[in-house]
Design goal:
The protein is mainly alpha-helical. It is 58% helix and 7% strand. The chain has two domains: 56 residues, no CATH class; 112 residues, de novo design (two linked rop proteins) (Up-down Bundle), CATH 1.20.1440.170. Belongs to the TMA16 family.
């Protein structure tokens, strides 16, 4: 889709001029350059958005895998157990990185990044961890049938589950504490 505008401009100019060369500073050259710049910008923005959404997609895929064999809606303590299991997913890697490090050496970049990610997720869990609403049976069925695309997540309902068991409705996409 992003390269749609450039192809339209190229097609229009080719129809108008044929295979003749364009002048360096002609209007048609300027149109091609601006269409190309626009497409580059759209591609950069789209890839940045995908990179930003990737952690949420992975989170929802993980919760989808937890629900595959479950037939009924979850209770809050069950959801909290799933969240705590999800938060501990990098514990083994952190332990191996720490054990492989020589005494007195600073932590590796990977070690630091994992610790920062865990601290951020623990903070989010304290105030309310963003997850699909697993208490609703219809939402659970929709999650099981989810195809893995960001755009199809709008059909799901989400909630924020805090460490002390409080559930609040949330919106999609996640914004702050909504």
């Amino acid at each position: 889709m992003p390269s749609n505008r450039l192809s339209k401009v190229q097609k229009h100019i080719t129809k108008k001029k044929g295979n003749k060369a364009l002048h360096e500073n002609s209007r048609d050259t300027q149109r091609l350059q601006s269409a190309s710049a626009r497409d580059d910008k759209l591609n950069r923005v789209a890839s940045a958005r995908q990179k930003q959404n990737r952690p949420y997609l992975l989170r929802i895929k993980t919760f989808q895998s937890y629900t595959t064999e479950h037939r009924s809606a979850f209770s809050i303590p069950e959801i909290q157990a799933i969240i705590e299991d999800y938060l501990g997913r990098d514990d083994e890697e952190l332990a191996t990185l720490k054990s492989d490090r020589r005494p007195g050496r600073p932590p590796s970049t990977r070690d630091t990044l994992l610790q920062q990610k865990q601290a951020a997720e623990q903070g989010e869990y304290t105030s309310g961890f963003w997850v699909p609403d697993l208490e609703d049976f219809e939402n659970l069925k929709t999650l099981k049938e989810w195809n893995g695309q960001w755009s199809s997540l709008s059909t799901l309902s989400f909630a924020r589950i805090s460490k002390d068991g409080v559930k609040r409705e949330s919106s999609f996409p996640p914004k702050g504490m909504s």
